[in-house]
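Recall that a protein's primary structure is simply its ordered list of amino acids. Everything else, from secondary elements to tertiary packing, is in principle encoded there. The following example makes that idea concrete.
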Amino acid sequence: MRFAWPGRHAFALAIQAFTLQRGERLLLLGPSGSGKSTFLSLLAGIVVPDQGTVRVLGQDLGQLSGRARDGFRAEHFGIIFQQFNLLPYASVLDNALLPLAFAPGRRARAAAAGGTPERDALRLMDDLGLGRQARDGARASSLSVGQQQRVAAARAMIGAPDLIVADEPTSSLDKAHQSAFLDLLFADRDRAGATLIMVSHDETLAPRFGRVERLDSFATVSRGATS
């Protein structure tokens, strides 16, 4: 499989083969600029390969329209983006609930878990140490970077998605919050039976994962003009 970003800073990622089994807890290691975020974008159908196939839950993502891929991703993926992608002037609670507006199956699961989706979101907020901010209607823009990262995590985990994809989710957390965050992430993953793939440059996280891979063990990066 191959995908290339065009332009002045052209970048191409070629993947020989990659398989992720249902229910796995995988840590993907690689330095900055190694293609980890591009790999996650391919996995989640945010972009589609120029050559080759990405198949998730039996679905060839390249066979879906852009709108259908968006719906598939909302229903089946919980994504913690490196830049968080929160709505800055929306409340903490509304940010956590956002995926459910596009994913009826996830909304139903959140309602079953908490009585209502809002209660399930508040449970996640409490577990992440943001219960007061959620109940007070705090805006995402009023939070610290570490707090915003935890809101992004709650948004990814709500409604028990099939796959949780996390792009450097602990980079803005101190060691104590990092450990608590991973405890919650793993507990929710185990409760839902979800598959987890997390990318990081931090090799000290490896003992907490059932499988550890380096991106350069199955992918190569090339830079410069692409054709």
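The mean pLDDT is 89. The two ends are 15 Å apart (CA to CA).
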